[in-house]
Design a protein that fits this description.
The protein has 349 residues and is an all-alpha fold. It has a domain of 131 residues. It contains 18 helices and no strands.
C-alpha cells in the first residue's frame, strides 16, 4: 500500500510540474508576443502614427497587463496625440503603481503642463521628489512649473537639482538664466559655462553662449557692486577677488581675445591662491586646456560667434588646425562634475 501511495504521489508531481511548465511556457510566449508588439508600436510612434501605436500597445497590454514600459509608452502616445485628458487619466494610474519610476512622473507632468493644470502638477512633482529625492529631472521640471507662475522659489529647486544630481544639465541652464537677471552674475557665468560644456551642441547652447558674453559685460560694468552683493558666499567672494585683480585685461572692452587673456590670468591666480581650498572641475578643465595650448580656441568657441559671426569665422579660418584640434579634443571627452563641488551655499557666518 505504501508503495502504491508513493507511485501515485510521483505521478501527481509529474503532472503538476507538467502543468506548471505549460503555464510558464505560455507566459513566456505571451511576454515574447508583447515585446514584439511593443517594437511595432514604437515604430508607429517614431513615424507619428499615434492611432496605430495606441491600437498595438493596447493589444500588447492584453498579453502583458502589468508591463510598466508598455503603460508608459501608451500614456506618452496619448500625450503626443494631444489627447491630454486621457494622458492625464493614464498618467495618474502610472504614478499610483508601486513600481512607478521617475519617467512616470515626467510623462504626467508634461500632460499637466499641456492643459495648464498647475495645482495638480505642483502636487504631483512634490510627490515625485519625495519618492525620488535624487532626481535632477524632477527638480528641474518642478522649478519650471514654479517659474511659469513667476514664483522665485523656482531657483531653490534648480539649485537642489544641481546639488543632488550635478551632471544633469537643465538645472544649470535654468539657474544660469535666473541669475543673469539678478545682481549675482557670478553664478550665471559659472552655471552657464558648465552648461555649454555639458550640452556643447544642443539648440540651447547658442542662447547660453550669448548670455555668457552679456554676463561678462555686465559683470565688468560694476565689479565692486557685484562683489558687495556676493559677500555672503565664500566662493563668489574668492572668484570676484581674482576677477578684480585681472580686470585691466578688459579695459579696452570685452572681446573673445580680451576674455581669453582675462580668463588665462584668472586661472593662474586661482590655482595659486584658491584651488586647494575650492577644487572645481570647471577651472581644472580650463587649466588643462591652457596646458594643451587649446584655451584660445576654447574661448573662441565659447564666445566668438556671439560677438560677431564674421570675425569668428575669420579667426577659425586663420587658426584652422588649432580650432580643429580643440573640437576633436572636446568631442573625445564627457564633461562631468563631482558631487562634492557645489559651492553655491558655501556662506560665511
Amino acid at each position: 500500500m505504501g508503495r502504491f501511495i508513493k507511485l501515485a504521489y510521483i505521478q501527481y508531481m509529474k503532472k503538476l510540474l507538467f502543468i506548471i511548465g505549460l503555464f510558464l511556457f505560455g507566459f513566456s510566449c505571451y511576454a515574447q508576443q508583447a515585446d514584439s508588439l511593443h517594437r511595432v508600436a514604437k515604430q508607429f510612434m517614431r513615424n507619428g502614427d499615434y492611432p496605430n501605436a495606441i491600437i498595438v500597445l493596447g493589444n500588447a497590454l492584453k498579453l502583458d497587463p502589468d508591463n510598466l514600459e508598455l503603460q508608459k509608452d501608451l500614456t506618452f502616445t496619448y500625450y503626443l496625440q494631444r489627447n491630454y485628458s486621457t494622458a492625464v487619466e493614464s498618467g495618474r494610474k502610472l504614478i499610483a503603481r508601486n513600481d512607478a519610476d521617475e519617467q512616470c512622473y515626467q510623462i504626467l507632468g508634461m500632460a499637466y503642463k499641456a492643459i495648464d493644470e498647475k495645482k495638480e502638477a505642483d502636487k504631483m512633482y512634490r510627490q515625485g521628489i519625495k519618492k525620488f529625492p535624487s532626481s535632477g529631472e524632477l527638480y528641474n521640471e518642478y522649478g519650471e512649473i514654479l517659474w511659469v507662475k513667476q514664483n522665485p522659489e523656482a531657483i531653490r529647486f534648480w539649485e537642489k537639482g544641481i546639488e543632488v544630481d550635478p551632471n544633469y544639465s537643465s538645472n544649470y541652464y535654468n539657474a544660469s538664466k535666473f541669475y543673469y537677471y539678478t545682481y549675482d552674475k557670478v553664478w550665471s557665468l559659472i552655471y552657464g559655462e558648465i552648461f555649454i560644456n555639458m550640452e556643447s551642441y544642443s539648440r540651447r547652447t547658442p542662447e547660453i553662449k550669448s548670455l555668457l558674453v552679456d554676463g561678462y559685460k555686465k559683470l565688468f560694468t560694476d565689479l565692486k557692486t557685484s562683489k558687495s552683493n556676493s559677500t555672503k558666499n565664500l566662493f563668489s567672494t574668492a572668484y570676484l577677488t581674482v576677477m578684480i585683480d585681472q580686470a585691466q585685461s578688459v579695459n579696452l572692452g570685452v572681446t573673445p581675445e580680451s576674455l581669453g587673456i582675462l580668463r588665462s590670468k584668472f586661472i593662474l591666480e586661482w590655482f595659486e591662491k584658491y584651488a586647494d581650498k575650492y577644487p572645481f572641475r570647471l577651472f581644472e578643465y580650463q587649466r588643462q586646456l591652457l596646458k594643451e595650448g587649446l584655451f584660445d580656441a576654447y574661448n573662441e568657441w565659447a564666445f566668438g560667434a556671439s560677438m560677431g559671426l564674421s570675425s569668428f569665422q575669420s579667426w577659425t579660418s586663420q587658426h584652422t588646425d588649432e580650432y580643429n584640434r580643440f573640437i576633436n579634443f572636446q568631442k573625445g571627452r564627457i564633461f562631468k562634475l563631482p558631487a562634492a563641488q557645489n559651492y553655491r551655499n558655501l556662506n560665511s557666518k
